[in-house]
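Here is one chain, start to finish.
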Amino acid sequence: MKKIYIFGAVAIAAASLTSCDDFLNDNRYPESVQTSNPAYWSNPSNVQGQCNYFYETFSGYGNGSGGGEFYFPGLNDNQTSATGGNQLAPWKNINVPTSSSSWDNPYKHIRRANLIIEGVEGSTLTDADKQNFTAIARLIRGFQYYQLVRCYGDVPLIKKALQPTDREELFGPRTDRNIVMDYALEDLSFAVENIAAQNSKNAFSKDLAAAMKSEVCLFEGSYARYHQKNEERAKKYFQEVVACSEPLVKAYPIGENYQAIYNSYLKELSANNEIIFMKEYEKDVFMHPTCDYTSSSTPISGITKDAFDAYLFKDGKPLALTSEDKSDAGTVNEDKTIDISAILAVRDGRLAQTIDDVVYYTGATYQRPNSMKMTSVTGYGVKKYVNPEMSYEYTTTIWNYTCAPLYWGALVGLNYAEAKAELGTLTNDDLDLTINKMFARADLPAQTVAGLSAMNDPANNMGVSSLLWEIRRCRRCELIYDKDLRYWDLIRWHQLELLDSKKHPNITLGANVSVLPEGSQPTNVGGYMDASGAQTRVFSEREYLFPIPSGQIALNDALTQNDGWK
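Its structure:
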């Protein structure tokens, strides 16, 4: 029989611990971390303090010197190389790890949520406080189960704060993913109904809960349709997306300034009507490195040719169908950088707000005001997150203090439009409320459902309708570099095969450098920068699920490994 070295995260390996008591003492005390003292839970400030730990689940632009969930995740077809290097980003897992934060951290937050739920239930708090704190805890618990399921599929479902005597739950098997996700939906729905605050850009609220529920249900509806072929389940979850998203789209209207969502300081982003929830940064108090890493001498992980080609032209047509000038070659500057301002002028306006109007690379650097000399592994820079008012903060790690959007109008609007299209109920009024507002600020013509349905872009390689393809295109361009969304979108759509660089070479290529004189061109394939680092990334079906950490299986015989992992 295995010793019980598990407590905080269902089954966390604790090789250095000598006894269960030592583990409990280390993890239950001091009270600032966890406590089971009834008097503790009867103090609203104490419970609020416990809930405040949940803010750690939102990494935003990063915490201090650590990278966040914008720009840094490089496993997608939008970025060619890993951050800070000239190599193709590998799959999320190469081998079975002994332990993983993707497994441990959600269960730690789930345990805290269960402690809060149980603690306030037996407390002397007012009914209103009990309801609010329970709703916050259930919001996080539901969202953490979603994050576990999208990584691992079936996972142990733990509904209470486990004690060492709870051997059946401690050493239990994985629970069917559908059961776990239905449980998560119950938690999220409870949160939407019962969190006290209706809205708040920097605290837990009903509107935040609805936005998080929108994200979770869109994933599950897509997974049910494209992985499980379960139409009843898919419709149920898509309908949940519509129900929780529609009020948000109206309450947080999509504004006119795309880049302001990403490069604003605290005062400005707090006043932005499109923001539902944000991560605050403040000069000399709490800062991040995202602007530094996209403005410094560290090689920039630029967008791919595949992503560049996805942007529509000013006539609202894709590359294969446009009547605009399709050239992507640019003109050579004296310093051997390439001016692409004319190319960007005839494209979706979001592209010019995402990348620089100059192609730069090793041997031909570019320098923004107040920044260092920069190179990009694809030739394309990243200016999306940079505020032009910055001075030395550009190039000083952890001195960036623009604030990060976490949930906002366009993000929820894209969820809403996609879910309605999947249900076959998307209308022109829905487009006017969502996609067309994004097109307006991108200087693109408004579209109709009939127009998008008849677009029929030859580049559509996902086997979906023209309407869905165009909505997915808008999502890709609107949310490029954001929150690792592209990777998880490809997961839920059952399209992860698009990250196979052998089958899809455009995901390893960058800017057109054929206009440079021979002998001065960076490494290229057919005139386009090659940022693969002579590496390839080959897809296999096992990539749809992470491997269960071997340390967990060693502790619990009932856990089984995901297919394809040994």
